[in-house]
Amino acid sequence: MHARLSDVRIYVYQQMIETSSAPSAADVARAFAIETADAEDAFRALADARMLVLRPGTTTIWMAMPFSNLQTPFTVVSDGRSYYANCAWDAFGVAAVLRADARVFTTCADCGGALERKISGGALTETRGVVHFALPVRRWWDDIGFT
Amino acid sequence: MARGAVLSLEQTWTLARLWYASRLDPDWRRPTAAEAEAAFASAGLTGPFWSLASSG
């Protein structure tokens, strides 16, 4: 028995939003009443389609973009929960996915100072600051972890 | 390393909403290269840095 990939993907995001962590393949297997091996196959298929990123050599979710399943310097706090994002853009992406007020925390890449920006009512409350993209778009998936 | 692209926070927030607003839609799929470039352009991001013309 197999689960639809779109259902697995949505389940991963729901768990990430509710718990700030991605489910394991075993978690997905229990939720969908399938074998763990089938859940792992679903993770690999989603990763091949660039809908998830797995830790290399494993079936552990690394990224469910814009969320990171691993600690990063980009934290987003919303509705009493804290999330890690993969980068500055994804930090704002977390706020966009949640469609809720949020605070984005990171550190300045230049001086190391702490930075906080807020999204309230769908808008930035403070617009000072810039985001630097080091790699051109066509190279992002050369090594998505580096990007 | 060559200097990359520098975006304002407003541009970044606009791009983030364009890129991620439909991520929880069960029918969501990755954008095509043309769709991605159109999204970038709508946020004022054009030029070689934002081009996917040579991607596989």
Structure explained in plain terms:
The complex is a heterodimer of chains A (147) and B (56). Chain A is an alpha+beta fold and 147 residues long. Chain A has 2 domains: 5-64, Arc Repressor Mutant, subunit A, CATH 1.10.10; 70-130, Bactericidal permeability-increasing protein, domain 1 (Super Roll), CATH 3.15.10. Chain A is 32% helix and 25% strand. Chain A is built from 4 helices and 9 strands, in the order αααβββββαββββ. Chain A has an 8-stranded antiparallel β-sheet with strand order 1-2-3-5-4-6-7-8, with helices on one face. In chain A, a hairpin with a 6-residue loop joins β6 and β7 (114-120). In chain A, α2 packs across α3. The mean pLDDT of chain A is 91. Chain B is mainly alpha-helical. Chain B is built from 2 helices and 1 strand. Chain B is flat. Chain B starts with a strand and ends in a 14-residue tail after the last helix. The A-B interface holds A 6-7, 10, 13, 49-51, 65-66, 88-90, 92-93, 95-97, 117, 119, 123-124, 126-138, 141 and B 1, 4-13, 15-17, 19-21, 23-24, 26-27, 30, 36, 40, 48-55.
Q: Greatest contact pair?
A: A-B, 35 and 32 residues
DSSP helix fraction of chain B:
25-40%
Number of helical segments with 4 or more residues of chain A: 4
Strand content of chain B: 5-15%
Question: In the CATH scheme, what's the topology name of the largest domain in chain A?
Answer: Bactericidal permeability-increasing protein, domain 1
Q: What sequence of helices (H) and strands (E) makes up the elements of chain B?
A: EHH
Uncertain spans of chain B = none
Give me the Rg of chain A, rounded: 16 Å
Mean pLDDT of chain B: 86
Helical content of chain A, roughly?
25-40%
Can you name the CATH architecture of the largest domain in chain A? Super Roll
Shape of chain B: flat
Oligomer, anyone?
Answer: heterodimer
Under CATH at level 1, the class of the largest domain in chain A stands as Alpha Beta
Order of neighbouring strands in the sheet with most strands of chain A: 1-2-3-5-4-6-7-8
- Work out the radius of gyration of chain B: 12 Å
SS class of chain A: alpha+beta
